[in-house]
Write a structure and sequence with these properties.
Blueprint (H helix, E strand, L loop, with lengths): L1 H12 L12 E6 L4 E5 L12 H11 L5 E7 L11 H8 L7 E6 L2 E6 H4 L12
Parallel strand pairs: 3-4
Antiparallel strand pairs: 1-2, 1-3, 4-5
The chain binds tetrahydrodeoxyuridine (THU).
The site of tetrahydrodeoxyuridine has 13 residues, from helix 2.
Length: about 130
């Protein structure tokens, strides 16, 4: 099950637009209804307008009407020192996902599984956001 999700993240990484960092990332988000939405990082010359793979996948899913998620796979084919979603993506995920969201991270020579609660134990919340 999660192997399939990771394979989808690896496939999505092939679409990464990363001419500045040369660091490709793919993400696959599993919805509670079993559907999967994928995303890749899309960089921009302004750098700050870059969108990570995780948010690309989440925004695609929410744009399609999904609000409930159970797992996220992220993959890079490129080598790195540590690999998990960045803090901005974790905060964005926390808007829709519970602390039990599984986050599966794979990179060359590494495979780690976390929960959202482990990676972001103290999310910012205004309240009133969840519909
Ligand atoms: N990036 C992601 O897409 N997801 C992550 O988990 C970490 C970083 C992207 C942003 C940027 O395009 C490139 O990787 C280098 O930071």
């Amino acid at each position: 099950m999660y192997e399939e999700l990771t394979a989808k993240a690896a496939q999505a990484a092939k679409n990464a637009y990363a001419p500045y960092s040369h660091f490709a990332v793919g993400a696959a988000l599993l919805c509670a209804d079993g559907t999967v939405f994928c995303g890749c990082n899309v960089e921009n010359a302004s750098y700050s307008a870059t969108v990570c793979a995780e948010r690309s996948a989440l925004f695609a899913a929410v744009s399609a009407g999904k609000r409930h998620f159970t797992a996220l796979a992220v993959h890079t084919p490129d080598s790195c020192e540590a690999f998990c979603p960045c803090a901005v993506c974790l905060q964005t995920l926390s808007e829709f996902c519970g602390s039990d969201l599984k986050i599966l991270c794979t990179a060359p020579g590494r495979q780690e599984t976390y929960t959202l609660g482990e990676l972001l134990p103290h999310a910012f919340r205004l309240g009133g956001g969840t519909e």
